[in-house]
Structure formats: C-alpha cells, structure tokens
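Justification of resources, computational component.

The compute hours requested in this renewal are based largely on the per-chain cost of generating structure records like the one below. Each record pairs the submitted sequence with a full structure-token output. That output is archived, and it is also reused by downstream analysis tasks.
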Amino acid sequence: GVGSIGALSVELMQIGGDLWAFVGGSTAGLRIVKVSDPSTPEVLDLDLPVGPYESASGVALHESRNGNKYAYVAAGGTVYVFDISNPRAAGRVGVLAVGKSLARVTATESALIVGTVGPDDVRIFDLSTPEAPEYQGSLSGYSPGLAARGDWLYIARGTSGLHVVDISEPIAPHVIATTPTPGSVLSVAISGDWAVLGDNDTVFDTVKLHPTPEP
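The structure output for this chain reads:
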C-alpha cells in the first residue's frame, strides 16, 4: 500500500527489531510510522500534538546512555520532547521553550541543536537529562539547514555555503571551515565522508569532507 502524510522532517530509527519513521510537518504534531516493510507502512493511531495552531517543522532523534529513545519536535518557538522507547506507547515527557520561531533541530549523542528562522542563531543544549535539555551556548547566523555528527555541526547557510562548526565545547562553538556553493543552500545531510546540500533551485551539491572535518 502507498500512503501520504504531510511532512517537513522525517527521521528513521531501529527500535525493537523494527524500522520506524518519525514524521513532523503538520498541526497533527509527531506522527509515527512503522516502515519495516515499505510496501505496507503502518501509521500508528497516537495523539502526539504540539502546541495549538503550530506546525511541526523539524524532528531530531536521540538515544540516551540508559537506552531510552527520544524524539525532539520543533514547532513555533518550542521543542516538544517525546519518549519513543516503545513507539506504540510514545508520549510527551518535556517541553523546551526557546522563544523564537524554530526551523530545524538535530542531535548528537550528547547535545540537541536548534536553529531559528531567519538570520538569528543556533542554540546548543546538553542532553544529560533528555527530558529537560539545558542551554549551553549559541552561534549567530542564518541557519536553515543543520546536521550533526560527533563534535561537528554542519550548517547550510544560504549563499554563504556550508559552514563546519566545532561543538566539542558547547559553551563556545566556533566555525572551523567554510565552503562556497553555487546556489543558496537550505539543507544538509551527512553520509560517510560526504555532505549533501540542497539549494533553492532544487539542485543537489556534494562536498567531500576531510578528517578534520574541514571541507
């Protein structure tokens, strides 16, 4: 079967031997879909709302040190925290008020990173307590696209191209490399040694990452 759900952000995670999709992008909040068999996806009938009149704009997933799993959903000026350890019994366990309209969220093993809409800032939160992220530091600049891996944050910054940020000290993140791109890049994904960028002309750019990981 083939179905459709309005989505601005989709993240995948293997839980309990099954593959699950966590979808944000509508006023319905977080949607959870079992996609172990892509030909017969199962949309769970769960009520996992965000705030009234808000639309989820981003989803990030995190596994804590004790094995619990969480979804962080950006909507309006708030990040909603859901425990997804058992997808069929998922529930909201926390709320993080950021106060600015959010565009995207991403996460590492220890940090939640949120980017605001427009030329504002990227904020970093510690995830020692996953249900209650604690603010650590910020970085100014237009940041429509975010991806993180380990101590590195990759930011798609429009006509400024790809920026690589060292977040090993979250209280003092700093840009270590930049790479210009042909178009205005709005999204970024990391796979192996490559960064894949999407721009406003529906063109994909690829950037080879060096070990530093300076592009």
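DSSP finds no helices and 19 strands in the chain. The mean pLDDT is 86.
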